[in-house]
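Cross-posting from the modeling subforum.

Setting up a comparison between two proteins and wanted a second pair of eyes on the formatting. Protein 1 (sequence, then structure tokens):
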Amino acid sequence: MILVIAEKPSVAQSIAKVLGATSRKDGYMEGGNYIVSWCFGHLVELVDASSYDERYAKWRYDDLPIVPESWMFEVTKDKAQQFKVLSALMKDKRVTELVCATDAGREGELIFRLVYNKAGCTKPFKRLWISSLEDSAIREGFNHLRDGKEYDRLYEAALSRSKADWIVGINGTRLFTTLYHKKLVVGRVQTPTLAMLVERDGKISTFHKEKYFNVHVGKGDLTADLEKVKTEEEAKRIAAACEKKQAVVSSLKRETKTVNPPKLYDLTTLQREANRYYGFTAQQTLDLVQTLYEKKLLTYPRTDSQFITDDMEDTARQVISIVCRQLPLFSGVSVTPDISRVTDNSKVTDHHAILPTVQLEKQDVSALPQSEQKILNLIGMRLLCATGEKHTYAETQISLSCEGYEFKTKGKTVVQNGWKAIEELFKSSLKTKEKDDPMKSLPEVHEGDVLDGVSASVTEHFTTPPKQYTEDTLLSAMETAGNDQFDDDTEKKGLGTPATRAGIIEKLVRIGFLERKGDKKTKHLIPTHKGTALVTVMPEQIQSPSMTADWEEKLLLIEKGEYASEDFMDEIKDVIAGLIQNYEVIRDSEVMMSKEANSIGKCPLCGSAVEDKAKAFFCSNRACKFALWKNNRYFASIGKSMTPATAQKLLSSGKVKLKNCKSERTGNTFDATVFMEVSDDGKTKFSMEFENGGKRK
């Protein structure tokens, strides 16, 4: 028999159905000469430092660096039962061969190999490599299984990544925690990511706005501008000089420009646009596309490619036709797709761009959750745009000469809307409309035309600071390691991978280094005082995006067999050893470290920090109206007060268990759970569930 190991139970079920393994057992399915089982993500992980030596249980500077000579692994405690199942199946005499069917990527390979090695399995195995969970894709994949050894380099890269993260995380965190007597969590990728946010926040906080003035002259529908005049006096003088005078069209330039269709979505680009259009976090988008992948409605999501291969052209045409029939937003849209625009074999390695599958034909889209429908609409829109016609427009640039000053204006008219028509259709479905292109059409004039008696005016403006990162712009910065010189065709050296970036952002929020602030749609990622303090004491090599991006590139080279994993690990060890040996504590850092924000949790409306103030627990976002008042009438009626601990529970889970509550009416005591609901206007409503049953509003 052949043992097939998937990454998740849902994926195992899809595979088992195709293979005919329909008999359910404890932790696996069996039938048709196949046994199909699964992991629950990472079943086996690197052990903690204390497992190598008991003295590492205590954090001491003198023990650093901690670098294992021989690496040890352990079964994740809460997943031990499933490991037992897999281990027993691997040892089952009936099993002669295995198939690795975990996700087709670096981490999927690591998940399988660590279980395989920990179980002491030596039986041969093959690799299933698919980009869709459709029945046809699974069958095709099993018809073209490859020898597992062909993916040894992928495993090496994954294992090197895991070991590097361990060395940097364990040693960096212990180093700075022992030196500053405060837990400071360091990560190979998360710290440089945090550093970019802190740098941006610093530029904003130190920004000094400067006033400037624009002078406008015009007549009728034609107005031109002289921008960024330094003083109001000078601007008014220019305006006065031009008022009621003649202006001459000194130059006129017309040219036709084209905007090529965008590329298909890779994971990062999809996460960025889902954040921009819907306010989804990167993790929310990843969870949604993973669910749609497991429902067989999308191809494999964790991809860094924006192209398909030429053997997929017929499928792509079929999918486009299905999108126009199945997604109500594009119902009736007539397109003649140019598939060649999105086809490039050289730019598809492990997986192609994210596409809907032909399974969408059988799906009642209206029955899906709204969030999943939004993702399908977004991916459908991008597919239609990417294979659409070029957008063409005529741009006109006009200069007006008046009293020795040159005033300029631009305008454009659409020649062929092309792919933009699909994009506009999509944007029209959004509740919040995007800002229109400020360029307008200009009246017909000719070079040398004279405008008599022009009017002149002055407007006041201010320079603006850099914008805080949103999830959209941070993902873009992570993709290029903060280097804005990259263009779409540059092979990017980024921070993390498409599959890991969402997790990095979420971890920074979870451990209190970042917080989300803003309205429901647009939330900014703001470093907390704790996060800023960490970056402030970090040396350059630990917070450097470029060095971490360089490490990420070397992991890719290991995958390709162009760089030795031993050399990579030696470099990591040298950096950490040098850091420990040479780092000097920053003076007066204890003052900086102690200034913690008095936050007790996150606002249920906007996600900003809720702070403990004199009369209430207020949301730190001034635009948000959420508050938990300390003299809360509902709590007073049951003999309780709104303490920080109570507020913390309500914020984290929406409920709090209370003992020895006292009835205002009878004086009897009781235990109960109080539930909190928050309306869109920030008002709170409480209800109660008694421990012995029953509810009270």
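Protein 2 (same layout):
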Amino acid sequence: MITVGVDVGGTFTDLVLANMQTAQQVIHKVPTTPGDPSVGVLQGVSELCALARVTPSEVRYVLHGTTTATNAVLEHKGAKTGLITNDGFRDILHIARHQRVEHYSIQQDLPWQARPLIERAHRKTVPCRLISPDGAELVPLDEEAVRRAARELAVEGVESVAICFLFSYLNPAHEDRAAAIVRAEMPGAFVTTSSSLSPQFREFERFTTAALSAFIGPKVGSYVAALDAALKQIGVTGELRIMSSNGGVATARMVTEKPALTLMSGLAAGVLGGGWVGDQAGRNRLITFDIGGTSADIGIINDGQIVETDARSTSIAGFPLLMPMLDIHTIGAGGGSIAYVDEGGAFRVGPQSAGASPGPAAYGRGGDLPTVTDANIVLGRLLPGDFLGGAMKLDATAAERVIATLAARLGLPLLDTAEGVLTILNANMANAIRSRTLQKGIDPRGFALVAMGGAGPLHAAEVAAMLAIPEVIVPPFPGITSAMGLLVTDLKYDAVRTLFQTSGQFNLSRINADLAAMQNHLAGRFAADRIAPDAVSYARIGDLRYVGQGYELKVPIPNGSVDDASMAQVLDAFHAAHAAEYGHAFPQNPVEVVNLRVVGRGAMPRLTPGRAAPGGSLELALIRHSNTVFRVSGTLASYPTAIYQRASLPLSQPFSGPAIILQKDTTTAVPPGWQAEVHPAGSLILTQKVLP
């Protein structure tokens, strides 16, 4: 069975083809086409099949990580969206919770007010009302009012509609009926309901989730449909599946129905790929560190478990989101990040990026601003004739020219300026890692840093040194690791129901009924996707908190019928999780079960773990020596540096830096005071021996 993974980055589109029977793997990179990412995807798939000597019709699955939804929100370029809600609740998307994002700042950036997803003029209200605790109808739905609202939105040019009613998580009847009316009145419009996306309490967050889905729905739907059709035109008869924010993949049909699933699609695969690589090397405490041309993405894997966001921190571009999502922190830091002097005279790097076009000055495509890539060339860490395995030549003269212009403005020597660009970038990335580790009570010194992306291995050792992380893992194909992450996951769907039950008063029959109903719902989804029942597994989770707390912690619920004994296990797990998260627990206090969740996984063919080729010797791998600039013990100096071809390195034979290791998809820098060796599983392991 042949599977293709495609990850679209800001600068390059990365691809990997894997034959699951023969363990054949072929990698490829093509420039991203920002105007229409599908153009680069199709080019890459066609070229990849040719490289692998297979026909497109032999591809069973195309697994795709896309940034279409992410970019639409970040750039605020979604559809003209409307809202239909209860009378009196038109402004819930504006009022929010009266929370201050930054408690002590006088300049608050509240995106739901400054950059609303739905303009107030396009928010319509209709008479209807459900009430808790069971969602009983208090005021019937005024269907004629819904029709009038839909007609008004159509006249206003609205392309997409979110339908959000109070307490719809308890009873979706009003939302479902309103959606049917809107679809009849506005054929061709994208229509979504809050209860179909996230049937749980917290109205503002649920309404915003629906608004986000509607905002991106037309763009995501048209992109996925066009890509699916285009793949078939080039002969790919297999299924297109899209990476979801929860770390699984979903069918094209599911993504078109629930586009919010893809809000972190392009980022999740990197964490999965990093985790898989770490597991092959026998490491299960990992910080994934994925640097592309535009951004750096950071994920945490603790004892083999990928950390997910919670209700407090699940958001995108500042908008809260009530959907499962891997905890991935992104900053504007990549090979294309622009170095500049701001209006106050400060030396800064990013978040602005030169992107794929024109790209860094060294690309020779008209770029005239200094970037991180240009700085690496000036310091000798990127070799102009060996970029992308020699497939792309870099212009060292252009790189030196733009760095020299920046140096003149700063009043610094050329090399100090270039090294300053890297130091600022590395410090930004180290601070980002601190925000996901030290600020959450996690000591990064007990983790390994997995360096991924085209630029990750260039910077990983110096970032690790800033954090006293003792070890860096460079995957066999660092620039393709996100694409490979697509090949090590499953079809994954989530279901949730709000419960609100307190310890000592658990309604076990209700708990069992809700869990069974959610599992049956997911089973229907998998059946529609033609996944055999024996290929599906389920996990059950409870969102628990002490009575009176504002937020919950997720704990597992044992399999089988839930009884008093299993609920006691759940409560014990919650107290332990609370102690781990906050440093204390209150076993004597009553506990509230807020939500029940079921996570279903449909098994997909997975990438076969491989072993590194025997390689050769250090003498065989040595290409030449060159001079490379590093700062050691506070002194910037040029060092004679060995240049190695990674494919020829021997297994399990340590060698010392400074060294530059070349391969098609990335360049790895081994600074002075560091040691490297190839692990039998294929990863390059860097360890710090001497503190610089």
